[in-house]
Amino acid sequence: MYVNSQFARCMADALAAQEVYIVRKIIFATGNMGKLREVKQIMEGLPYEIISMKDAGLETEVDETGTSFEENSLLKAKAIAEKAKETEEYKDALVLADDSGFEVDYLNGEPGIYSARYMGTDTPYSIKNKSIIDRMQGVPELKRSARFVAAIACVFPDGKCEVVRDTFEGRVAYEAKGIYGFGYDPIMYVPEKGCNSGELLPEEKNKISHRGKALMKIRELLINAGYTE
Ligand code: ITT
Fold first, then answer.
1. Cα 28 to middle of ligand 1, angstroms
2. Percent of residues, the chain, with pLDDT higher than 70
3. 3, 1, 27, 15: which is closest to 156 by C-alpha?
4. Measuring from atom 22 of ligand 1, which residue has the nearest CA?
5. Does domain 2-224 have CATH number 3.90.950.10?
6. 166 is a catalytic site residue
7. Once rounded to an integer, what is the mean pLDDT over residues 64-82?
8. What is the DSSP letter of 106?
């Protein structure tokens, strides 16, 4: 995969260029299996072991009280980093957390940071997606702009924090399509691909997605900080 091979090459360059600090474990602070699957795919083949907070036994409920994706990603990452610090196994682990969502310009940015909570967290996405398509009924093509946004926060073992952000631009589709991805993927039309995000194979989505691009920025941060194997 392009993302992985580029990442692996950068890692090799970094190894050749400097003395490196060894951190192999990255705890990904999410309870969303769709996100976790994508992060594991994007980081596949790299010298990091991605461990979900559940597998690390660090699961905790974090109130997403922030007013931006950035604030919420930091809240999640810091909460799990604090718990990790109390354990022998993960006290030196790096913690990442993603806060993301679907923003529709015509709906004043809704559902935005409330994407997971829109119409209730337990409401199936088939219903959430239909609601958005219904609210966009009659809205012309030019006014259907929308995007996925991801902020990814990183807490280093010394407590230092960084947050990166990226977007995946598209339009609200006229109908839900596709079996891949999760959440709002079936209803975002991706002009550069001529199909909905839910129709993209995982490796295609990861190359251009908000999460894929934000993780590339995290990769650079890790390399610059010497956090390679
Ligand atoms: P965690 O907080 O445990 O990570 P969550 O699902 O509650 O899981 P968020 O608060 O960040 O996470 O909400 C993200 C929501 O945004 C997610 O549940 C989807 O509805 C939507 N979303 C984010 N990225 C997406 C993607 O790549 N494809 C489709 N929908 C996405």
1. 14
2. 89
3. 27
4. 101
5. yes
6. no
7. 97
8. G
